[in-house]
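Whether sequence alone determines local backbone shape is best considered at the level of individual chains. Part of our work consisted of pairing the sequence of a single chain with a tokenised description of its backbone. This step matters because it turns folding into a mapping between discrete strings. For completeness, the protein is quoted in full, as a sequence line and a line of structure tokens:

_____
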Amino acid sequence: MTSCNNSIPQPLIFVLAGIPGLESSHGWFSVPFFLVFVITIIGNATILCIIRVEKSLHEPMFLLLAMLSIVDLSLVSVTVPRMLGIFWMNAKEISFKACLTQMFFIPSFYVMESGILLAMAFDRFVAIWFPLRYTTILANSILGKMALAVLARAMAVLTPAPILAKRLEGFQTHIIAYSYCAYMAVVQIACGDVSNHIVYGLMVIVASVGFDLFFIILSYGLILHAVFHIPSWEARGKALSTCGSHLCIIALFYSPVVFSVLAQILGYHMAPYLQIIIDNLYFLVPPMVNPLIYGARTKQMRERVLWIFHCHRH
């Protein structure tokens, strides 16, 4: 229950603080943010072009990687330009409607990415447990249904966010201590009973990240069970190497979330600016690193990239 003696009505304009406490360093923060944005666009666009052109890559693992790249491009496109506007031009004002839009799309793309990582874990499970039926089980029609399921889940889970936020009437302030319109950041400055909003926020985490992480761990448990029953050490290493890129991406994607949750459970209170920086890492680091990991660790992708560079040199 948040009581306010001098509450203000629902404002038409919110002000995004950026990174509170480090306003004087916004210019310095803009440099890595901009570089991450450029690298993400180039890397994911390259991945999509290579998969589209190279017919040998039209198989389930790479088609799922293409879906991941599309979501990554969408995610940085709705987050980084607004952040750079704050850092470069002090463009902190955002309309209430635009805030609600951000509140829906930013976490939606994050939930979609989590769903695709789960689909990729299932892909590796099928490849190792049922190698002879791999392309049959993961036919294009099945991949299409998986993509629709990921999209539908994100919409079902996140549609209530702007609807619930719109019902908030009284606010302590019109300043959001964040670099984008996060649902819980808006709830924190609201007046009155916000317990339902907090429960909803927890449900979103459990129904998306919690659900996906549980089944990813289960998939890899079954993968390891199958791999260690292979008699040849060489065959074991080859089987595990096909999972290496995906495991790296999973570690990068879920680490900030797990760190934040553990910090709250253990009662460790981070400085607000540190919490916001970690939250921004959710949306910035994985989209940049995903194409670099797959480009470096996947033979077909690496050979195609080197071939492109060779052609440009000559």
About this structure: The longest strand covers residues 13-16.
